[in-house]
Amino acid sequence: MRRKLTERPMRRCIGCRQSLPQDTLMRFTLRDGEIIADRDQRNDGRGFYLCRDRSCLEKAIKGKAFNRILRSAVDTEKIMRVAEEALNSN
Length: 90
Ligand SMILES: [Zn+2]
Hints:
Distance between the termini: 22 Å
Helix content: 25-40%
Structural class: alpha+beta
Bound molecules: zinc ion
Low-confidence stretches: none
Mean pLDDT: 86
């Protein structure tokens, strides 16, 4: 299936805060209090997007973006680990 560029849904990276095509970003969701990499982008629930870029991950952590978005205190080390894993798998 081919989609026009203009039809690609845009999502905002919580690190650099740029709106980018959803399929260029990594999605993470909170499930049972745990952050998981949502590879198929199908999980319901609270989630966020990040560029496939370590500097965006670092910005998000420094800015405490996760706590704001997920509305709960989160273990940033856990997020780091999950996000790094997702980064490395691409
Ligand atoms: Zn970014």
